[in-house]
Amino acid sequence: YLNGRRVVLKGISRHEDHPRFGNALSYEEMERDIILIKSMGANAVRLGHYPAHPYILNLCDRYVLFVLEEIPVWNVPVDILTTERYISLAKDYVSEMITRDKNHPSVLAWGIGNEFDSADEEARKYVKELVKFVKSIDNRPVYYASRMIKNDVCVDLVDLACVNVYIDDFEKFTESIEYWRSKYRDKPVIITEYGKAVQIGNRNGYSDPFSYESQAKYMLERYRLIQEMNYDGSFVWVFADWRGERPVMTLPNQDLYLYTMGVVSYDREKRPAYEVLKALYTDGKVPTLAIGDYSESIPAIYTVAGIVLLLFLSYIYYSYRWFRENFNRATFRPYNFFADVRDQYMISFGQTSLLALIISTTLGVFIGGVLNRLKQNEFLDYILTHLIFIDWLKVKLISMIWNPVASVLYCSLFSFVLILLLTFVVQIFSAFVRVKVFLNDSYSIVVWSFLPVIFLIPIDIVLYRVIGNFEAGIMIVLLGLIIILISFVRLIKGISIIYEVSQLRVSLFSLGLILILLSAFLIFYDFKFSSLAYLKFLLNILNSVK
């Protein structure tokens, strides 16, 4: 309330970034930004996850814009958030921010973080201490922006119930903000972030999900819904495009470091979303948005490759008796087949290599199809960003994922290389057993053990149509993992036969080796990147948006 009257915040968030000046904008550029924001009809600005240059506060005072200002506590898991060292650093940051900016009348509230793990009870320690510390310096409201729509446990400790909502499906978006509105009726409720990314230059009409018009329609529908639910304010994410530190997979742009969620471009050219927001914020006439005639194109490579694999496998199965016999024995009588390999029964290198080609291509189509279908999923991007800490390598991977043909070729090559690596591992450990094992035997055991992979071929044909969302993708991936697991069990059985060692000993040794490698992997990532803490955080986010 201002002077006894309710004020609804019509806001937008702003990053301190510019194509020419980076984050060191000139005073003139800062003022141009604020004028554009004011001209849009906004009455509030959220300073994007960190305190802005002091001159921005001067401009907001002058142009009468409310400000939400916060410290850069973003995307932090609870195991880090609640350490004494982290809380001490956060308090230092808060103290510096408030001491510097408390005399600006435009500052409406102080933020103590954005999208940290507020679904964990332990996070209450951080929130309690920071709220108490802020109140000891200044009496303005305190907030944090939550991502945990369904399972936040800390909002009762702050003055404003703020939530970030990134849900494309309109019904789920509606359900989520209805839930948040109904849960916190005892305090002001604000949506601190909602927005949509675009493809640079895409004017195909709002039927294209990455077009400028689609972004504008998204803002139009969401803002009207927020108004209907009587929210106390909302902030669009974001004013202008900005450059990030890591390449992003989910956007179909050439510059993978450029985050294109702005209602104006990186160089401040207005997009249709700007004009729509201006009409909404000033009660003006909303401009007409072109619908276009976009229809999603399904890459033919996955279906075609699956059909070719099925036809080729059928041809060699029915045309060559030797392949059919080996195929049937390896499938239904694997012990007899692996015993024949041990006893030097002639299984040609050509047969085995042909099967290796089919298996690796089947895996390539499967893995490539899953990655390409989920290329716009932010959680997959989150995982890849965490696992692949070398930027140029992630850029190459993103380029491969977005290119259907490249995804099949590279994933097939990767699968074949793994087959060769497993072959050499089997051969190396054969030096520790009494029997003589030839390299061709190791190769045959590995390849024919993975024969169950070919049962993914029918899935390859329909794969792209089946996995339309992340949950379905998870189910498909689990099916693939089960088939891989069955293949590894077969491999252990085959190794025990050619080594003439009990299957139990081979199983225990293999399990021990896998556990050692997995432990080394987890220890490295957890030591360097706190991976286990971030995994727990990610699971809480996924649980909050079900």
UniProtKB/TrEMBL annotation:
Any one GO molecular-function label of the UniProt entry: beta-glucuronidase activity
InterPro entries: GH (IPR017853), Glyco_hydro_2 (IPR006101), Glyco_hydro_2_cat (IPR006103)
Residues of the Glycoside hydrolase family 2 catalytic domain: 1-282
GO BP: carbohydrate metabolic process; glucuronoside catabolic process
Keyword vocabulary terms for this entry: Hydrolase, Membrane, Transmembrane, Transmembrane helix
SUPFAM superfamilies, per database record: (Trans)glycosidases (SSF51445)
Bilayer-crossing regions: 300-318, 345-367, 407-433, 445-467, 473-492, 504-525
Keyword Hydrolase set for record: yes
Superkingdom, natural source: Bacteria
Presence of the UniProt keyword Transmembrane in the record: yes
One matching Pfam family: Glyco_hydro_2_C
Protein family: Belongs to the glycosyl hydrolase 2 family.
Protein name as catalogued: Glycosyl hydrolases family 2, TIM barrel domain
Originating species: Kryptobacter tengchongensis
Organism phylogeny: Bacteria, Pseudomonadati, Candidatus Kryptoniota, Candidatus Kryptobacter
